[in-house]
């Protein structure tokens, strides 16, 4: 097939559409190939994917064939931040109908273990998550997915915004775990895609003041336009840490209640632990290093707690509400758009990996 | 011979153990401030030695607190009320009381929100520049003196202070009837944490240490299982397995009462997803730990600084017998120059010395 042709509905013998998907075959090797869907279960829906964003973890899988403990051992469909249109519903599905526009929550948990039963399903050890090996992702014409993980989009929320619910959920979950509210001043380290959605979420949760840092001025400018109160440009040098702590504390002007480390390096964690007020919280979202060397003891001795984040739980309804009411506007984060062709898939991943002025790369299928 | 204080001009001279230089304690006169309307004057009867007291003796500092001039040592104490200020209504002379060491400001936002242990203006016995309580008598706010029930001894009263650290840690980590608890370190703090965890209802408590004697004390005090560990960082993975086996079920909460890279690494790796690690022990400032994998399992790290609002609960635990601290008091000394020196040497030695107690 020609590289530039849109991969929509290839007809097989018998007139059935052949479902195509972007498969990760090896390091830096994505190929659009057929993707056979499982049969539709009674509680499933078949969704025609319309919008899909690229995540840093997708890029990481692409570059290294692994991400933390997840290793790509066989070809796997990439992608997980998605929204689409219902095409078919299983026999027991009552609250969705063909034609409905939905945002998809990627992870299917087991519902039987203690973590699931206690509501912390994001930590389920049997989780099957789009694009986390060995589970195929959703950069495809169609997927089959549990109806309970498909959330109907309000009229005024676009499919691209629906796809943005996934990264936005990370920020929402972090704000919940860190208990952000109308009295919590927030410091966000890192103004990349995750730092920026955390900013949006923190504001939606009522944070009265948000200070953000980054090494990159252009990302700080975006943060400013999205509502950050103060921006501080920082360095990558550990020796600058104590000076930067003073700068962020001065910029906040009152104590820093919650710090989100959306980067996850020794320096950012050191800054977070030292800058946060006694009794405050540091929320580690950025998952960079395995082992960190950080001033943990003085922070613990000031009762600064460190809260961990893994994905999200029960966030789609809230995200959709924030988008519907306009409390959050994610559209400025979508900086680059691509079609579902071999050429564009390659270009999209290259653009996303580059970073810089590329915040969210979005496929339109 | 006890230093009860020479009688001068018909008045007793108050004596205290002063930290005057590195490794140098001297019993010398300690002039008390005048009694304010909300104060009481307490005759000290029992004072325990804490690791921080030993640290000050050896180095004249502890974290960022520096001893710049001679300071009376000691803070874990109980005694008998001798005199009460004009506005004191809940205590009378003769009452036996346990003392909470720290006087906070009650004006700042921390104090007003109940986190008075974090008060920046905290005045704490034997944290420089505030004098401690290893003395014949001290003057102290009455609201920080808690009356002991009849059948609780003054030594047990003094033990409320270290016990409070364990109680506060259990509260911050949410220890309860459904939480299996792992404790790193069976020293004085690990052991009070064990007692507190049991009192909070923890169904299973596994405790680890390098020292077999301390593990046997822990077993006597009610640890479900003990695991002997090494100081070798390479042994972490194996020890995590041993710990999980000893617990039988998942580790919900870990209290690191040692505070080393290895113990924190073990704690972070052994605790179940969604669990908590409470860093109680204060070792090095900078720690190298596998924080990210733990954070990515939503294992939270909770810090503790001293305690808040713990004396009533400690006293109730002692009164009801839910906690018995008496086995922790392994060595006793009187209040004389030689005994003060011997006591600190014993405490610093560790090993079979858990809590060293002065009887005045």
Automatic annotation (TrEMBL), chain A:
Keywords: Metal-binding, NAD, Oxidoreductase, Zinc. GO terms for molecular function: oxidoreductase activity, acting on the CH-OH group of donors, NAD or NADP as acceptor; zinc ion binding. It holds the Pfam family ADH_N. PROSITE patterns: ADH_ZINC. Residues 26-359 form the Enoyl reductase (ER) domain. Its cofactor is Zn(2+). Belongs to the zinc-containing alcohol dehydrogenase family. PANTHER family: L-IDONATE 5-DEHYDROGENASE (PTHR43161:SF17), SORBITOL DEHYDROGENASE (PTHR43161). This is Enoyl reductase (ER) domain-containing protein.
UniProtKB/TrEMBL annotation, chain B:
Its cofactor is Zn(2+). InterPro entries: ADH-like_C (IPR013149), ADH-like_N (IPR013154), ADH_Zn_CS (IPR002328), ER (IPR020843), GroES-like_sf (IPR011032), NAD(P)-bd_dom_sf (IPR036291), SDH-like (IPR045306). GO terms for molecular function: oxidoreductase activity, acting on the CH-OH group of donors, NAD or NADP as acceptor; zinc ion binding. The keyword Metal-binding applies. Pfam families: ADH_N, ADH_zinc_N. Keywords: Metal-binding, NAD, Oxidoreductase, Zinc. Residues 21-358 form the Enoyl reductase (ER) domain. The keyword Zinc applies. Belongs to the zinc-containing alcohol dehydrogenase family. PANTHER family: SORBITOL DEHYDROGENASE (PTHR43161). This is Enoyl reductase (ER) domain-containing protein. The lineage of its organism: Eukaryota, Viridiplantae, Streptophyta, Embryophyta, Tracheophyta.
